[in-house]
Every structure is written in structure tokens, then in C-alpha cells.
UniProtKB/TrEMBL annotation:
Protein biosynthesis listed as a keyword: yes
InterPro entries in UniProt: CLU-central, CLU_dom, CLU_N, CLU_prot, GSKIP_dom_sf, TPR-like_helical_dom_sf, TPR_rpt
Biased amino acid composition, Basic and acidic residues: 138-148
SMART domains: TPR
Protein name (Swiss-Prot/TrEMBL): Eukaryotic translation initiation factor 3 subunit
UniProt entry tagged with the keyword Manganese: no
Biased composition (Acidic residues): 670-681
Source organism (scientific name): Achlya hypogyna (Oomycete)
Source species taxonomy: Eukaryota, Sar, Stramenopiles, Oomycota, Saprolegniomycetes
Gene3D superfamilies: Tetratricopeptide repeat domain (1.25.40.10)
Biased composition (Low complexity): 209-218
């Protein structure tokens, strides 16, 4: 990992075409807009999408564009052709072009598009361009303010911030109830959790009174609307549709009924020339126009109903207010466009009951209608895209863009098809075979189930089922690897693996002729009968050998086993052949004369540790259950491709070091210096893996070579056990990496070449170091193991009870309550069995609860499965209640149910309502809490949409980490431009670019631009990965840092609070990064003078920080400085002395930090002594004052008595 960071590949030379400016003139030359930074590579269709982002043109769908060319002529533009093909008519130096919109006549398809666009805008209005890039609010005006006014302004600002901080509760509760509440839309109450403190309640009244008194701040205190105004109730097809013959000939296309919020119903005719309100009623058909016609549906409704026009204006104003509010617009728009994502496991709680919605009902009836007409030939599109030229950067961009578009659409289509297959909508093409061998063809996609064909029956052990699961994963890895090798002429299939309701469906594009038999396609490479006959076409072998150079696969001569029962297929035979790849891989020559490679299950050798009887990495139970299946040719335990690359690099370094040592010994350094680099490259190239070793058949005809190949495979497996896994654990131990959840953990393990079956070994090693390893590591590993085991257990339940797939809610409810409920409740409430039965009954007319599935039996299955699958005994699960209250206080809780719920739902594709659950109940989930099941899809889509952009991002981030800002910023901008041209910016890499650009701008001092870039990153992460994704949490934290630097502390604290909330939901309360965030939260409160809250945050950071002494010292120093702000020098001295002890222990006496700490201690001591003297003087003065007051009272009495005497004496003298 470190090597990759230090030896970063040089940035590719990007010959980016210059962008142009396009002036767009509206219909009738009424309105005009300017599109800047338009790439000539953009198609005219993307130009239309840019135009649709402007509110003035957002409703236009039925038009075409014309480009002005020299001699003042206009030419129409084809939507599917690049803009650069038309602008070539001008000189190359021309960078400004003029385009006009010409309205077209409607047809039925265009009417449907107009209505769909209208409804989309009502749900997600366009943001006015003036509000898209808001400037951060200046909290302190600098114009014409006297020093006194400036001071008053700052005091008001601090008071406002303090009033908002009153509702902050520390520690932040990991609640799901507020997950979908936008951070910046809640006004003063946005930081108040569900249980505000009593103090905050008492202070709120006074705060509200002050806010009401401050008329100048009244506009800032009004919270934004959290919902969009409703402009229409419904827009549906009228019952008078379709138009009768005479009206159809007159140009009527369809009749619509628009219901407004006030109950008025407008009958509207869609005509070829536009829309108009007709004179029909509910019962009478009168197609005559009641008002003038308009080209846009919006104009018709605005003219017919002033109330609609007012509501639409309010809609645009709300959208502008959201955009101006900054982060709120991001989150609100993300919620409005809830994109489907497998990681989204919670759904917002419905605030209203299931309401009548004619639009929704009409949409549901239209599901399944393919408006594109002809079903797409996915394979032809995909292979043509792969055959596109890639000699120049521009050609590579075009190729990557087409491939990305096709693959994303293929994944969507295959996922929908797989779900329809499991739901029973699509029939099999071989209904006479056993159900486990069913295959399907839908939308030119070939689907198969991941089971072992005819051999698998429900009564048999489910080992076959699990091997098919892993084989599908390995095949997908193989396809990705050969795609990355990108050998011209060698084709793979577009592949998707979909898990849905316990069934794994594999979707692939169809090889031309494969379904028509051998006459149309034939085998030219590999074997279809397990190595009995093997084919090795010379042309195909040359391409496989080229791919093998990248994949480090050895070329070996293999002797077929023979004994085939059927005649050989295609070019297969029994003679010895030379192969570069697994024997079971199949090279097919399709009827389109392309060479396809299939069944790439084994592109790496077997993992010897898993099969070695003397290995201690797998338990006897695990080996006994998995070995027999592996021996029959079902491959479950392979080394990862990343490990083979790491091992080859490691061996090369070993050889390099050995050569250096030999050179020093022989004093021949000078002669070999020039050839070292070449020899190093040769050392890497010489290591090749024979992936057919450790198989039932001979891996090669040469026994000596076979022995050497087997030794290499065994050594690679030993390298994984003896070096890679311990190094990974060491990184976890010293805090070099902190995976925030199971997804991050999986990515990190795979990047290091560690298979997930070694989770148990990693957990055992971490447990042995536990006092010196963060507590959360073992907790996270156990949660991941439980979630993975439960996935197979639930799949087995669905396999044993296939009828439950029709009512999966019963299974979800029963499993979740058994998994997360308290099976030993302290108080026996109403009968839990009755509660569960009632929940099941409310889900289905015929509830089919799984018998004998309660908490005890489910946890017994999970514990046994984890022991078999991972060789690990769960330490924290199931949750055991302490017998005594004292024990409960002493033993910290290590089993956290919320992270387990999250990870289980992510792994299985389940969705639950985003509310807080009482896990102390036996049945915490009710029927309304289980909201859906989504398919979890893995595809052959590459991780990076464009490799050159990924290289630029890596290089730019490396330079950013070195503090080289200008080149880093340029590289990130180049990467952003490339990504926008390839995938339109809606990609995880684009979010990373935005976040990295924000960091560069922040360090360069441009905080407002950094805030804008970070908000875009936050929006992308939220939309692409979900609101509780770990990168979303870190995006919140970074945005908080930038907002605080821009004097927007209230918003910053809200974002930091959301980051802590997300990380606690994902990783539990012991995640080390939350301690850092609490420290930052305390520093923000301290910077605005809220010392009490700052101390609370710092104490929370100290409580959560386990092993990082430097962070503890920083927290203690911050607490000392906070105490200094309020004059608590004695407390500051105590904290700073603890800092000194920590620094001395870590760095020694001479370190500058220790010296500085001693200076602080001396200062605090002096101030504390002075303060003590001052207090003594104050106390003495107070005592003297008290004595003086007491004496004065006595003197007053005496004086009054003397005055009375004098007064009497005076009166007496007067009388005399």
C-alpha cells in the first residue's frame, strides 16, 4: 500500500479539447440563455439536458435545435450526434456559437414526455441559476460600521450561535429517527434531539423572547419550508380517451384531466399543435376549445387557474430558498430524487397515511411496457463499444463513455429481470427440466440460477448451493480481470450477479448463436467436460497469452484426462494442448465471428491453506464440510487476484535484495548498476502462476514443472497467512486504518488480497492483542461475520420454504425479531407469541411463520455457521444479560444491535423504516417497520469509469498530501473534466474529486469556494451511496470545518453532529474517529465562547479515545485553555499537568512539546497563585465589609438614639 503511494504513476497527458460557449435562443426569440464550458464531445442530447436545467426552458420537451453556420444559415441538429461534428463548419478558433430552439408538433410519445416532464418538475423543481452558486453569508458587515456597531453585531451573532447551541445534547444519540431530517432545515430546533435537556427547555423561552425582540434577525430565524408546495393533485388520462375518429383526424392526440388542489378539474386536450382546455364535463364530451391553446401544459394551466400560477411561483421560490440555504438544497433535492441504491437500508417514515393518488395508480398499470419499441441487443452494443478505437485520449473518452452508459443500463435491466424471475413473472425456456436448472431469456439477457443444476435437491446438504454462490463471485472477478487486461479481439460477456430473496441470479449478454447449437457457435478453447477433452485454437491462444501477461498466468501443456462419454465439442480433442488459463474456461467462436471467453471461475490458484490437513487456519468442522465439495471440482477457496500481484511484487523485491547482497559480497557494484532496472522488471515478469495446480487432474505434462508450480502456489498461500494477514492486523493495531463499517472493511481486506473467509483469523489475532487494539475492531468483525452467515441461513430458509418468497415480509419480521429482540425480557408484557402472530397476520392473509425459528434457535444456527465458515467462536453475541446490576456496570456492552441491523439489511437487501427501535423488547419490529426488499447487484462494471481520470485523482491527492496545491488543483480539475465527459459527474470518483478540490481550496485560503465544492461532494455521496454511508459522514465533517472557518458555526456544529450520528449508527460507540469529531466539536464551541459545552465535548472525546495518547493530550490541553477563558487557572493547571505526564512518557524530557507544556504550567501556576491572592484579598475585603456592615448597623442604632436624644433636647430648649 505504501509502495503505491510513493511510486505514483506519472499523470497522463490529457489533450483536452477546448470548451466552447453556446448562446441558446428560445422559441420566438423571447428568452435566451448562455451555456458555458460546453465540450465539443457532448452530444446534442446532453445539450438539451443542460437547457432543461434552466427554469425558463425546463418545461420544453417538444423541440429541436438549429445551429447558426457561416453565411447566416441555420442547420438542424441530430440529438445523437456530437456537437463538434457540426461546429467543424466554423474556424477552429471560434469558441462561441448560437443555437435556437424550434418548436415541433406533438405526437402521442411527445405528449407523454411533456406530461412526464411536467410531473417531474412539480416533484423536483429546477433551481434558478442565480441561486445555484450561492455566496456564503457574510455574518459581519464591514460597510459603514462604527467600532461600537461592529462590537454589537458580533455580540448579537455570538448570542444567536449560543442560543442555537443550547439544544445540542452531548453525547450525540445514534438515532435513526432524524436521519432523513435535513441538517439545515430545522431552524433553532435542528440540534435538539428527541430528549432535550431540562436546562435547554428552560432557556428556550428566554431565547425565543429575545429572538422576537430582535427585529433585525427575524428573517434569519424563520425556518425554511421542509416540503414543496403542491401545485396539482393529479394529472391522468380522461375517460373520453382515445379520441373518436373525427377528432383524431382533426389532430386530437389524447384527453387529460388535471385536478387542482382546490378541487377544480380541468379537461385538457393534447393536440398536435399544443394543449388547450376543452368544454367537456364529467359526463358530457365537448371537444371544442374553451380557451386559447399553448404549446406547453404549464402555460395552459397558468392561464386557466390563477391559483395554480401562484402555487407554481411559490414552488420556484421554495426551490430557490433551498438552493440559497446551501447544504439544505443538497439534502432536500437528494431526498426528492431518491435514487435506487443497494446500500440504502432505511426508508423515511411515512408522515401521512397511504393516500389516494391517481398518478401513482396509473404509473403502476404501465409497468412492463417498453416504450423503446425494439428490445436492445445488449451483446452487440457491448462488443461494438469494446471494439471502438482507443489510440488517442479523445477516442478513449468516447469508448469509456459508451461502455459506461451501456453497462449501467444493462445492470439496471438485468436487475429488473432477475427480480421478475424470482417473483415468477418470467417463464423459463426449459420448463421440462428440474427447477434448479431453469434458465431464462428476457430482453436479450440470459439468466441462470446459481445452483449446481440437476445434482441439487432441497433435501441435500446446502454445500452445493454455497459453492455456486462463491463460483458466481469468482466468475465475476475473472470477467473484471480480463476486461482490465483489455486484449483486442478477446471478448467477455456483460455480467451481473443479483441476490434477491435468497436466490442468486446470474445475468449475461447472449453470445450470438449460442442458443442455436453448435452449428452457429463452437468451442475453440478450454473444456466443457471437466478436462476430459480440451480445445486450444492457435488464434485464441495468442489472445489468452497476451491477457496472461497482465494476469500473471503461466503457459502450460496439459494432457486431457480422456474417457468422455460423449463426442468432443467443437475443436476439443484428447491430444496434449498448451493453455494459458483454467482448463474449465470456455473459448467460444460466436456466429458473429468473435472470440468469447466464458466461465472464468479460476484465474488464480487454489488456496492451499484451506485444503492442507496440517493447516491451522481452518477448523476440522469447516474442512470436513467443504473439502468433499471442492474435490469434486467445485471451487470455493481460491487466492484473490490482488494477492497474486502482491506476492509477485514481494518475490521481485526479494530477488532484488538478494542480488544487491551478492553484488556487495563480490564487489561488483559498478558493473551491474546499469542493468538493475531491467533485471527488476524481468524478476517480476518471471513469476507466473499455474492456476491448474492442486486439481484432480495433472496441471502439466512435465512433473518437475508441476512440482515447481505447486510450490509457488503453496508459497503464495503461506505468504498470505504468515505476512499479509499479520500485517493487516498490525495496521489495525496501530490505527493506520479504521474501517467505518462492513463495506469499508471488505474493500480494505480485498485490497490487501485477503479473502473474507479469513475474517475469523483476523478477529482471533485482534482478540489476542485486544488491550492494545481498539475495541470496535473485534465488534465490527463479529458483526460482519454474523451478517454473512445470516445471508446463507436466510437463503437456506427460502430454499426449504419456497412458498415464503410470495410473502417475504413474514420471514423478514420473524428473523429480525429473533436476531435483535431481547429473548430474555425483564418484564413479561403481553404474550410475545401473540404479538408476533398478530404482526404476521397483519402482513398476510395466510401467514406462514417458520416453525421453530426463535431467538435461541436462530442464534444457535448463526453461532454454528460462523464456527464452520470462519473458524471463530462469537464472544459478544448473542447478548447475555448480567445477573447483577453491579456486573452490568463493570462489563462494557460490546454487542451493538444498531450496527448489526444496518449491516444485515445491507447484505440481504432488506429495508426498514427509519425510526428508533426498542431492542429491549422481545419483538422490537412490527409489520409497518419492514418496508421493502431490494436486489443486491454486483456487476462487471469497472470500479473507475475512466482509468486516466483515476490516475489523475491519485496523483493529485498525493500532491495535495505533500502540500503542493497548484499542481494538485490542476490535476483534480483535469480529472473532473474527464469524468464529466465519461459519466456526467454522477460517479463516486466525481465526489472524491469535489472533496479533494475543496481541501485544496481550503488550504489555499479560498473558503467560500471550498464550501461550494464540499457541498457538491456531500450531495453526490448522499445520492450515490446513501445518507449513512461512511464517506457521507466524513463529507459532513469536512464541510463543518470549512463552514466554521467561514464564521458559520451553527451550521458547522449541525453537520458535525450528523457525522457523529452516522458513524455511531455504522460502527458503534467505540469507533475512534468519533473521539476526533467530538474534539473538533468542542473546539468549535470553544471558539465561539461556549466554554461549558466545549468542556462537555472534550470530556466525551477523552472518554471515547482509547489508545491515542497524543489525542488525549490534545483534548486535555484544549480543556486547560477553555478553563483559562473563564479564569479557572487551577483547573487549567491540573489538566496541563496531565498533558505534561503524557508528553514526557511519549517523547522524553527534551522534546519541544514538553518544553512548551512546562511554560504553560508555569504561566498557569503564576496566574493561579495570583488568583488565589486576589481571592484572599477579596475574601478579606468581603469579611471587612461584613464586619463594617454589622458595626454600621450597631452604630446606626446608637446614632439614631443619640439623634432622638438631641431632638428631644432641641425641642426642650425651644420651649424654653
Amino acid at each position: 500500500m505504501g509502495e503505491a503511494m510513493t511510486e505514483v504513476a506519472p499523470a497522463p497527458q490529457v489533450e483536452e479539447p477546448t470548451t466552447v460557449t453556446v448562446h441558446v435562443e428560445g422559441p420566438g426569440a423571447k428568452d435566451a440563455i448562455v451555456l458555458e464550458h460546453v465540450s465539443p464531445l457532448d452530444t446534442v442530447m446532453s445539450l438539451r439536458q443542460m437547457i432543461a436545467e434552466f427554469p425558463v426552458f425546463a418545461h420544453h420537451t417538444c423541440y429541436h435545435l438549429e445551429l447558426q453556420i457561416p453565411e447566416n444559415k441555420w442547420i438542424p441538429l441530430n440529438d445523437f450526434i456530437e456537437l463538434g461534428d457540426y461546429t467543424a463548419a466554423w474556424e477552429e478558433a471560434t469558441t462561441e456559437f448560437k443555437v435556437r430552439m424550434i418548436l415541433d408538433r406533438y405526437d402521442v410519445r411527445k405528449v407523454r414526455a411533456q406530461v412526464r416532464r411536467f410531473r417531474d418538475i412539480m416533484a423536483n423543481p429546477p433551481i434558478p441559476q442565480s441561486a445555484q452558486a450561492p455566496k456564503p453569508k457574510k455574518t459581519i458587515e464591514e460597510k459603514k460600521l462604527t467600532p461600537k456597531q461592529e462590537t454589537d453585531k458580533q455580540l448579537k451573532l455570538l448570542k444567536d450561535i449560543h442560543s442555537k447551541l443550547e439544544g445540542l445534547v452531548v453525547p450525540v444519540a445514534p438515532t435513526l429517527a432524524t436521519l432523513y431530517q435535513p441538517v439545515a432545515l430545522n431552524g433553532n430546533a435542528k440540534k435538539t434531539e428527541k430528549e432535550p435537556t431540562k436546562k435547554s427547555k428552560g432557556k428556550k423561552k428566554g431565547g425565543d423572547a429575545k429572538a422576537a425582540a430582535n427585529n433585525g434577525n427575524a428573517t434569519e430565524e424563520v425556518p425554511l419550508d421542509a416540503t414543496l408546495p403542491k401545485c396539482i393533485e393529479s394529472i391522468v388520462v380522461s375517460g373520453f380517451n382515445p379520441p373518436p375518429g373525427p377528432r383524431k383526424l382533426a389532430g386530437d392526440l389524447t384527453y387529460l384531466e388535471v385536478t387542482l388542489p382546490d378541487g377544480a378539474v380541468l379537461p385538457i386536450t393534447a393536440h398536435v399543435a399544443g394543449f388547450f382546455v376543452n368544454k367537456s364535463s364529467k359526463t358530457t364530451f365537448d371537444p371544442r376549445p374553451a380557451a386559447a391553446h399553448h404549446h406547453l401544459l404549464l402555460d395552459v394551466l397558468s392561464a386557466a387557474s390563477p391559483a395554480f400560477a401562484a402555487q407554481y411561483a411559490k414552488l420556484l421560490a421554495t426551490a430557490e430558498a433551498w438552493a440559497t440555504a446551501g447544504a439544505s438544497s443538497v439534502e432536500a433535492m437528494v431526498q426528492a430524487t431518491s435514487g435506487a441504491n443497494s446500500l440504502v437500508w432505511t426508508t423515511p417514515v411515512a408522515t401521512t397515511a397511504h393516500a389516494f393518488d391517481a398518478n401513482r395508480a396509473q404509473d403502476d398499470l404501465s409497468v412492463g411496457i417498453d416504450e423503446r419499441g425494439v428490445i436492445r441487443d445488449w451483446n452487440e452494443e457491448y462488443q461494438c463499444a469494446r471494439e471502438l478505437p482507443a489510440a488517442t485520449v479523445r477516442e478513449q473518452i468516447v469508448r469509456a463513455r459508451v461502455l459506461y452508459k451501456i453497462m449501467t443500463e444493462f445492470v439496471e435491466a438485468a436487475t429488473q429481470g432477475a427480480m421478475a424471475i424470482v417473483d415468477g413473472t418470467i417463464p423459463a425456456i426449459n420448463p421440462m427440466d428440474d427447477e434448479s436448472a431453469f434458465v431464462y431469456v428476457y430482453n436479450h439477457i440470459f439468466f441462470s440460477r446459481a445452483v449446481e443444476g440437476q445434482k441439487h435437491v432441497a433435501a441435500e446438504n446446502d454445500g452445493n448451493h454455497e459453492n455456486a454462490y462463491s463460483s458466481a463471485n469468482h466468475d465475476l472477478q475473472g470477467v473484471k480481470a480480463y476486461n482490465a487486461a483489455d486484449v483486442p479481439g478477446l471478448h467477455t460477456l456483460a455480467t451481473v450477479v443479483v441476490d434477491y430473496l435468497g436466490v442468486r441470479i446470474i445475468g449475461q449478454s447472449i453470445i450470438p448463436g449460442i442458443l442455436q447449437g453448435e452449428a452457429a457457435s463452437k468451442l475453440v478453447y478450454g473444456s466443457v467436460d471437466g478436462g476430459k477433452t480440451i480445445a486450444a485454437n492457435a488464434e485464441m491462444h495468442a489472445m489468452m497469452a497476451q491477457a496472461a501477461e497482465t494476469l500473471l498466468i503461466a503457459e502450460r501443456t496439459v494432457q486431457p484426462a480422456g474417457g468422455a462419454d460423449e463426442p468432443p465439442s467443437g475443436e476439443a480433442g484428447t491430444d496434449a494442448v498448451t493453455l494459458c488459463g483454467p482448463v474449465e474456461a470456455k473459448g467460444i467462436l460466436g456466429s458473429d465471428n468473435r472470440h468469447y471467453i466464458l466461465d472464468l471461475v479460476r484465474i488464480t490458484p487454489k488456496d492451499w491453506n484451506f485444503y492442507n490437513p496440517e493447516s491451522d487456519s481452518v477448523t476440522e468442522t469447516s474442512r470436513a464440510s467443504l473439502l468433499p465439495k471442492a474435490d469434486t471440482g467445485k471451487y470455493t477457496a481460491l487466492l484473490r487476484p490482488e494477492l497474486t500481484q502482491l506476492y509477485a511484487r514481494w518475490k521481485a523485491n526479494q530477488l532484488k535484495q538478494a542480488k544487491k547482497d551478492a553484488e556487495k559480497a563480490t564487489d561488483a557494484e559498478k558493473e551491474t548498476e546499469e542493468t538493475e532496472a531491467d533485471e527488476d522488471e524481468d524478476a517480476v515478469a518471471t513469476l507466473r502462476y499455474n492456476i491448474n495446480v492442486l486439481m484432480p487432474y495433472a496441471s502439466t505434462t512435465d512433473a518437475a514443472v508441476a512440482a515447481d508450480d505447486e510450490a509457488v502456489a503453496k508459497d503464495a498461500a503461506a505468504y498470505l497467512q504468515s505476512m499479509v494477514i499479520p500485517a493487516f492486523v498490525a495496521d489495525l493495531r496501530r490505527g493506520a486504518m479504521y474501517p467505518a463499517d462492513g463495506t469499508a472493511l471488505t474493500d480494505m481486506l480485498h485490497a490487501c488480497g485477503i479473502n473474507m473467509r479469513y475474517l475469523g483469523k483476523v478477529a482471533s489475532l485482534c482478540a489476542s492483542f485486544e488491550p492494545h487494539v481498539s475495541k470496535y475492531v473485534a465488534e465490527l468483525l463479529e458483526v460482519e461475520m454474523i451478517a454473512r452467515s445470516l445471508k446463507h441461513i436466510v437463503a437456506a430458509l427460502f430454499l426449504a420454504h419456497p412458498e415464503l418468497r410470495t410473502t417475504p415480509g413474514c420471514v423478514l419480521l420473524q428473523v429480525l425479531n429473533a436476531l435483535l429482540g431481547d429473548h430474555l425480557p425483564s418484564k413479561a408484557a403481553a404474550s410475545p407469541e401473540d404479538t408476533l402472530a398478530a404482526n404476521l397476520a397483519s402482513l398476510s392473509l395466510t401467514p406462514a411463520a417458520i416453525p421453530d425459528l426463535d431467538a435461541t434457535s436462530l442464534w444457535a444456527k448463526i453461532t454454528a455457521d460462523v464456527a464452520v465458515r470462519f473458524g471463530y467462536t462469537l464472544r459478544f453475541w448473542p447478548v447475555k444479560k448480567a445477573k447483577k446490576a453491579k456486573d452490568a456496570k463493570e462489563v462494557p456492552v460490546r454487542a451493538h444491535k444498531l450496527p448489526l441491523l444496518r449491516r444485515v439489511c445491507q447484505r440481504l437487501g432488506w429495508q426498514v423504516a427509519s425510526r428508533d427501535y426498542d431492542f429491549s423488547r422481545e419483538a422490537p419490529f412490527s409489520a409497518d417497520d419492514v418496508t421493502g426488499v431490494v436486489a443486491v447487484a454486483k456487476s462487471s462494471l469497472p470500479a473507475h469509469a475512466f482509468v486516466q481520470a483515476a490516475t489523475l485523482i491519485e496523483r493529485g491527492r498525493f500532491l495535495l498530501s505533500q502540500g503542493v496545491l497548484a499542481p494538485a488543483y490542476e490535476m483534480l480539475q483535469d480529472a473532473s473534466s474527464l469524468l464529466y465527459q465519461v459519466c456526467g459527474g454522477a460517479h463516486e470518483d466525481a465526489a472524491l474529486v469535489c472533496a479533494s478540490t475543496a481541501t485544496a481550496l481550503y488550504h489555499a485560503g479560498d473558503v467560500p469556494l471550498a464550501i461550494g465544492s464540499q457541498r457538491r461532494a456531500l450531495g453526490l455521496y448522499s445520492q450515490l451511496k446513501g445518507l449513512d454511508y461512511y464517506d457521507t459522514a466524513f463529507a459532513h465533517a469536512n464541510l463543518a470545518l470549512y463552514l466554521h472557518a467561514n464564521a458559520e458555526t451553527a451550521q458547522a456544529v449541525a453537520h458535525l453532529q450528523r457525522a457523529i450520528q452516522i458513524l455511531e449508527v455504522a460502527a458503534g460507540p467505540h469507533y475512534p474517529e468519533t473521539s476526533v469529531l467530538y474534539y473538533k466539536l468542542g473546539m468549535m464551541c470553544q471558539d465561539v465562547g461556549h466554554v461549558a459545552l466545549a468542556l462537555v465535548c472534550h470530556r466525551e472525546a477523552l472518554r471515547r479515545g482509547e489508545l491515542d495518547r497524543m489525542q488525549a493530550a490534545g483534548c486535555l490541553h484544549a480543556m486547560a485553555m477553555a478553563c483559562v477563558l473563564v479564569g479557572g487557572f487551577r483547573e487549567a493547571l491540573a489538566y496541563e499537568q496531565k498533558v505534561l505526564s503524557l508528553y514526557t512518557e511519549v517523547f522524553g524530557e527534551e522534546d519541544p512539546r514538553v518544553v512548551e507544556c512546562r511554560k504553560y504550567i508555569a504561566t498557569f501556576t503564576e496566574r493561579a497563585v495570583a488568583g488565589a491572592k486576589d481571592r484572599q484579598e477579596i475574601d478579606a475585603a468581603a469579611a471587612a465589609d461584613a464586619m463594617a456592615e454589622a458595626l454600621a448597623e450597631e452604630w446606626e442604632v446608637e446614632i439614631r438614639q443619640e439623634e432622638k436624644k438631641k431632638a428631644k433636647a432641641g425641642k426642650a430648649s425651644k420651649k424654653k
